[in-house]
Write a structure and sequence with these properties.
The protein is 17% helix and 30% strand. A hairpin with a 5-residue loop joins strand 7 (186-190) and strand 8. It has helices at residues 16-23, 30-37, 41-45, 111-114, 117-133, and strands spanning 25-28, 67-76, 81-83, 140-150, 170-179, 181-183, 186-190, 196-199, 207-211, 215-219, 222-224, 230-239. By secondary structure, it is of the alpha+beta class. It contains 5 helices and 12 strands. The strands form 3 sheets. It has a 7-stranded antiparallel β-sheet with strand order 1-9-5-12-4-2-3. It has a 3-stranded antiparallel β-sheet with strand order 8-7-10, with no helix packed on it.
Length: 246
């Protein structure tokens, strides 16, 4: 018998900024993500077919075949979204001991997805929230990652690098789908304190927003409960001082 899943403690949209300011992270329910972003669930769902055709991640140093992804970069203000020329994803080994120090080139997001109104609404809403947290920042350098973690090899690892920070200012993690799997528990810890929380994201378009300097996060491995299982997420990072790696 599977243990019951622990649900996250949800924050109301109007409390998103003070909650992140107070404890370093907050979680919005799907209906509140829709209200906060101005993008109805049906509009967000228009992005979901993309996850069925993500290309394999060719950079897995653990030899795993369980991760598929796309990656694109943007410069975003509360009023404007500008996609920039396709670039490699880079992290230092300080933040990613497994894959840091490499220029990793992934296929970009589909132009049809970037053109959706819900996509722009989501990025602008994140920029508005982060601007409220950091009013001195005029624009945000944003990297968007579409991930599918599957159970091809019997187990899939959403965060093969382990508990980590990303080397950015803020991280948004949105669950897109969770099908035929167990595990995948989210764990968030204070970087410089004793407090931590664990919970499982189960409903599509639940969003967790993290202050990357203040908290460490990870997701536990997934295993199949049927012939085919996967966990789809959208991870959006926002950085004030340009993209990592220049």
């Amino acid at each position: 018998m599977n243990a019951p899943l622990l649900a996250p403690s949800f924050t109301a949209p109007e409390q998103l900024v003070p909650t992140v300011r107070d404890r370093g992270y907050a979680v919005l329910s799907p209906s509140d993500v829709a209200a906060w972003s101005g993008a109805p669930i049906a509009a967000l769902d228009a992005m979901r077919p993309d996850w069925d055709s993500l290309p394999p991640d060719a950079w897995m140093k653990d030899g795993g075949r369980y991760r598929r992804r796309r990656h694109s970069c943007f410069v975003v203000t509360p009023d404007r979204v500008e996609q920039v020329a396709h670039r490699a994803h880079w992290q230092s080994v300080e933040y990613n001991a497994l894959h840091g120090g490499m220029q990793r080139w992934f296929e970009p997001m589909e132009p049809s997805t970037v053109a959706l109104g819900a996509w722009g609404a989501l990025l602008r809403s994140l920029a508005r929230t982060c601007a409220a947290l950091r009013p001195e920042v005029p624009r945000w350098f944003v990297e968007a990652h579409q991930f599918r973690i599957d159970t091809t090899d019997g187990i899939g690892r959403p965060t093969p690098e382990g508990a980590h920070r990303d080397g950015v200012d803020f991280v948004a993690v949105l669950l897109v789908a969770r099908e035929g799997v167990k595990g995948g528990e989210t764990r968030v810890f204070e970087a410089d304190g004793p407090r931590g929380e664990r919970f499982t994201l189960t409903e599509p378009w639940t969003m967790m927003l993290l202050d990357d300097a203040r908290v460490i996060h990870e997701s536990t491995p997934i295993q199949p409960t049927s012939d085919e299982g996967h966990r789809d997420t959208l991870v959006i990072t926002l950085r004030a001082e340009g993209f990592q790696g220049g």
